[in-house]
């Protein structure tokens, strides 16, 4: 039977999307649904002195209007889920009670019979403020005399983290040179096609169903249950199709808690839908930190030591994973290089901005062929010829540059026993259940959650190889806490290494049980049974093989079963990896800069990525393409900007916040170096974030290489035309041109 893993199968789910049969939260229509509107703070930092709801309550169609004080003691605070030991966690109420700390923070709510009526009533709420000084930049927030956001967080630092090894001071003393850099990882707004939405529907006997575009449905069920005070067994979370997540939809937000509480209070379905401007103001942002780096090295290029100080801007409150993010530089800041002496300090800083999400930390790389990735990339890119062409064109007044970046990351946070020491209130396992019906078809219930990744295809490919059946005979179910047994969802590129491995091992258990039943049916020892091409046979005999479907039927008939074997063919597994995977890669870009306009054209882009075993090359290339485009956006276009004095968001819509367009992108040439991971039975490492990690430094390096004749050695992202043009102009001015 032809192996399915490794085949570039088209996504099974695409036909449904292409024919308009996708089902997103806002597509769910329930009779009698009420609509929630949120009044948000227009100030970055202010004391609330009065909230007058009287006019809103009297408006046509309004069922309820509430301020923060009305909910005190009724809904708990929004709490983070990853808290580095020693972190001070400031309180975050679902509605601000006495103070607001960022533009867009929830202040009051209106529930009305229509969405329009709710938003009309919001305009009738009168709020009086005493405006306070704001601070939006991480460096300014820790300076003497900076505005303090929380009384419990002195100097605006919630976490201080230090790690390292070796002796950096000695390394710096021995070095020929010490390079010092200040690198800005610019703040990004997750620009999903589908903004956030919530629909909460009360049921019988106190039950509640919440429809939510969640990357982590089972975790959302726990968080909502604990914070609103609903017994977890009475709460069902349904995540239908999701129009993009980018990490932003794995967090707990006030609107989710409010809809759940209001639906039970009003005994009616309550829906909230986020506008694009609300998304920019209130959905968790990404990145937003500054690294101060020292690198001690010899003139032959050998790096002796490295020192990193990270200032992580996490916004006004800690999102689910914010306290851990800035520690990543300390965890694997050395990348794919062997650096004996390394010293890292991270400070997690609160500012008057939207909270930020971050990723994972670990220090053990499982496997990788770093030189192999570099060799493949150089060959595909035709590096030597490109360098020669670059020099010829420079002589003609054209400025082209080559960028090269090698990266590594950690995926699939695990094992569970290690996560507690790092402050995680979650496990690293994933679950899978495979149910075989009496005809031999399979249904795979996975705790992972797709947001456009193609899980229905890739997970079926994994299970199909073990079960030795066609992919089309396997249905995949995700995103419903009533149907799926348990799970941690999708983030940190964990779905294939953890969720895929769970499906693989679970399928193996199905086959193991089916072998025992087949042995009883054929009246032979189970050790004599082989499973080949979807049939159970006794090798070297004339005994007629048993098709899988026939054994499945007997499992449910129960007529011929071994002693101690229960009827049915249904297995559930909780798979906990022994460690994390470390994808790596080398990306290369060829760009041209127009010195008259500052425009950057990407002529070519080559990505060679090592994500271990590739389940589906077509989907894997799609993941790389999407990630590279996201990384190009960070490098050249995207930046969430705030006014330094007022704290006002200056990029409040897509008119002000630029994202990549198809006509500005190159052909992205993707190749893979497959070095299997020893941490899971599939040898998979994860690939979802690889492109977004490799692309920003690759593009920045390429642009700076093009600008080298002007003496420009450093620019912070994004490298917008205005920034590039200004740098060229300033370089001309300093030369007296």
User: Largest sheet, order of strands side by side?
Assistant: 3-5-1-12-9-10-11
Query: Which stretches of 5+ consecutive residues score pLDDT under 50?
Result: 358-362
* Shape estimate: globular
- H/I helix tally: 18
Structural class designation: alpha+beta
Main sheet?
7 strands, mixed
Radius of gyration: 28 Å
Strand residues, percent: 15-25%
Helix fraction by DSSP (H/I, runs of at least 4): 25-40%
**Secondary structure tally: strands:** 26
C-alpha termini separation = 71 Å
pLDDT averaged over residues: 95
Question: How would you sum up this structure, described in words?
Answer:
There is one protein chain. The chain is α+β, with helices and mostly antiparallel strands and 737 residues long. Helix content is 27%, strand content 23%. The chain has a 7-stranded mixed β-sheet, sandwiched between helices. The chain has a 5-stranded mixed β-sheet with strand order 7-15-14-13-8. A hairpin with a 2-residue loop joins β20 (529-532) and β21. α13 (455-467) runs parallel beside α14 (495-522) and α14 (495-522) packs across α15. It is globular and about 90 Å long. It starts with 13 loop residues before the first helix and ends with a helix. Residues 358-362 have low confidence and may be disordered.
């Amino acid at each position: 039977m032809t192996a399915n893993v490794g085949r570039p199968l088209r996504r099974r789910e695409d036909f449904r999307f292409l024919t308009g049969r996708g089902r997103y939260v806002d597509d769910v229509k329930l009779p009698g649904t009420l609509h929630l509107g949120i009044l948000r703070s227009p100030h970055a930092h202010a004391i609330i002195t009065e909230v007058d709801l009287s006019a809103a309550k009297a408006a046509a169609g309004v069922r309820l209007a509430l301020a923060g004080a009305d909910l005190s003691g009724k809904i708990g605070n929004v709490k983070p889920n990853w808290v580095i030991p020693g972190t001070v966690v400031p309180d975050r109420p679902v509605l601000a009670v006495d103070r607001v700390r960022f533009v867009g923070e929830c202040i009051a709510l209106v529930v009305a019979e229509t969405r329009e009526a709710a938003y009309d009533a919001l305009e009738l709420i009168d709020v009086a403020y005493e405006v306070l000084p704001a601070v939006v930049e991480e460096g300014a927030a820790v300076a003497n005399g900076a505005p303090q956001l929380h009384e419990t967080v002195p100097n605006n630092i919630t976490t201080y983290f230090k790690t390292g090894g070796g002796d950096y001071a000695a390394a710096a003393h021995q070095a020929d040179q010490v390079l010092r850099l200040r690198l800005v990882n610019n703040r990004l707004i997750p620009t999903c096609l589908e903004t956030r939405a919530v629909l909460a529907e009360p049921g019988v006997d106190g039950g509640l169903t919440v429809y939510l575009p969640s990357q982590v449905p089972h975790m959302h069920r726990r968080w909502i249950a604990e914070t609103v005070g609903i017994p977890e067994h009475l709460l069902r979370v349904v995540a239908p199709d999701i129009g993009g997540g980018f990490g932003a939809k794995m967090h707990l937000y006030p609107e989710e808690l409010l809809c759940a509480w209001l639906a039970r209070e009003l005994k009616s379905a309550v829906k909230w839908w986020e506008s694009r401007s609300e998304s920019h103001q209130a959905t968790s942002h990404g990145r937003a930190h500054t690294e101060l780096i020292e690198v001690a090295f010899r003139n032959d290029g050998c790096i002796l030591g490295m020192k990193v100080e990270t200032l992580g801007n996490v916004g006004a409150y800690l999102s689910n994973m914010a306290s851990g993010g800035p520690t990543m530089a300390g965890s694997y800041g050395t990348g794919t290089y062997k650096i004996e002496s390394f010293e890292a300090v991270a400070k997690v800083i609160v500012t008057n901005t939207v909270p930020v999400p971050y990723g994972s930390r670990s220090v053990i790389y499982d496997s990788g062929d770093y030189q192999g990735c570099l060799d493949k990339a150089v060959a595909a890119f035709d590096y030597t010829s490109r360098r020669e062409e670059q020099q010829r064109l420079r002589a003609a007044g054209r400025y082209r540059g080559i960028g090269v970046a090698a990266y590594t990351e950690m995926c699939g946070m695990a094992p569970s026993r290690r996560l507690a020491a790092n402050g995680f209130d979650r496990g690293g396992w994933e679950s899978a259940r495979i149910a075989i019906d009496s005809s031999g078809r399979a249904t795979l219930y996975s705790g992972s959650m797709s947001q456009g990744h193609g899980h229905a295809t890739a997970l079926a490919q994994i299970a199909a190889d073990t079960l030795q059946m066609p992919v089309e005979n396997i249905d995949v179910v995700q995103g419903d806490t009533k149907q799926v047994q348990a799970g941690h969802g999708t983030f940190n590129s964990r779905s294939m290494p953890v969720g895929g491995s769970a499906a693989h091992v679970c399928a193996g258990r199905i086959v193991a049980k089916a072998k025992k039943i087949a042995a009883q049916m054929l009246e032979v020892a189970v050790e004599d049974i082989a499973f080949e091409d979807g049939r159970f046979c006794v090798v070297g005999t004339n005994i007629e093989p048993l098709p899988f479907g026939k054994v499945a039927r007997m499992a449910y008939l129960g007529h011929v079963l071994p002693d101690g074997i229960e009827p049915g063919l249904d297995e559930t597994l909780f798979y906990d990896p022994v460690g994390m995977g470390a994808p790596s890669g080398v990306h290369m870009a060829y760009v041209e800069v127009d010195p008259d306009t500052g425009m950057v054209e990407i002529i070519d882009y080559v990505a060679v990525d090592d994500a271990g075993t590739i389940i589906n090359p077509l989907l894997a290339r799609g993941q790389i393409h999407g990630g590279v485009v996201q990384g190009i956006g960070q490098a050249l276009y995207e930046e969430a900007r705030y006014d330094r004095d007022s704290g006002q968001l200056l990029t409040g819509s897509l008119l002000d916040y630029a994202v990549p367009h198809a006509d500005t992108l190159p052909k992205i040439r993707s190749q893979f170096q497959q070095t299997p991971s020893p941490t899971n039975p599939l040898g998979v490492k994860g690939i979802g974030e690889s492109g977004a990690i490799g692309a920003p430094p690759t593009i920045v390096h390429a642009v700076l290489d093009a600008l080298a004749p002007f003496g420009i050695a450093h620019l912070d992202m994004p490298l917008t035309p205005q920034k590039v043009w200004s740098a060229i102009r300033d370089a001309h001015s300093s030369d007296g041109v």
